[in-house]
Design brief:
By secondary structure, this protein is mainly α. 71% of the residues lie in helices and 0% in strands. The chain is elongated and about 75 Å long.
Length: 250
């Protein structure tokens, strides 16, 4: 019983992946939950509570297993380096990050839909088989962007042998390795974005000091120049292009 309702969460992620603009219309499968009669493996109410808890973690798992983490961190560095405070609003950046995530993950989403979701809807495979089939393209995506050093960190900690193929990797090992690899890459990109704006701040501060205007905040004077530079170089295009290229785009 426990195994059955635990399978619903990954299948819910598959459905969530499928409900994006790049995917065609899909019918929702009929997934039942066997909560038991209260005499086996605890009461039904406890099972429902555990199910709700796991489902509440599904968005976090979805974020950590896609390109969303890298994109949001890069946008955060960009907003901080510009010094525009609440502009653009965080909701706009998160929304843009979500749609970029759907765009980048489109090949993986399509594969998951073809090999797992559609066969499951048509009754050709079971939930166990759908879960296994869906995990393979997701693992391949994460493995492609995971550093070997980070992966070995978690493999050595568990004391397990090095897997021969990607299919042999456990998600409990691959997901945290992928997450810290994404953090490192995002911080590297954020550093490169921060440098030109830092140079503008230093130049403006030096000019103000040489003019004896030490009481005037350099950030306030530098802000229009940073915005002007960002607009002139078509900054949004460059940042988004850099993100796409970092995931293997052309």
């Amino acid at each position: 019983m426990k195994k059955k309702w635990m399978l619903i969460v990954p299948l819910a992620l598959i459905l969530l992946f499928a409900m994006v603009p790049s995917a065609h219309a899909l019918s929702l499968p009929d997934i039942s939950v066997d909560i038991g009669d209260g005499e086996e493996n605890g009461t039904g109410s406890l099972t429902i509570l555990l199910l709700i808890t796991v489902i509440s973690l599904a968005p976090a798992l979805l974020i950590m297993m896609t390109s969303f983490t890298r994109i949001t961190i890069v946008f955060g560095f960009l907003k901080m380096s510009l010094g525009t405070n609440n502009f653009p609003p965080s909701q706009v950046l998160v929304g843009l990050a979500m749609f970029l995530t759907f765009f980048i993950m489109a090949p993986t989403i399509s594969t998951v839909n073809d090999v797992a979701l559609q066969p499951y809807i048509q009754g050709e495979i079971t939930q166990d088989q759908a879960l296994d089939a869906a995990s393979k393209p997701i693992k391949e995506f994460m493995m492609k962007h995971t550093r070997e050093k980070d992966l070995l960190l978690f493999i050595n900690y568990t004391g397990a042998e090095r897997p021969a193929t990607v299919d042999d990797l456990s998600l409990t090992v691959l997901v945290p390795a992928f997450a810290i690899s994404e953090l490192k890459t995002a911080f590297q990109m954020g550093f490169m974005i921060y440098i030109p704006f830092l140079v503008i701040d230093m130049i403006v501060a030096s000019v103000l000091m040489s003019m004896g205007m030490m009481m005037l905040p350099p950030v306030m004077i530098a802000l229009p120049f940073k915005i002007l530079l960002f607009v002139l170089v078509d900054g949004w295009n460059l940042v988004v292009r850099s993100i796409l290229l970092s995931f293997g785009g052309t």
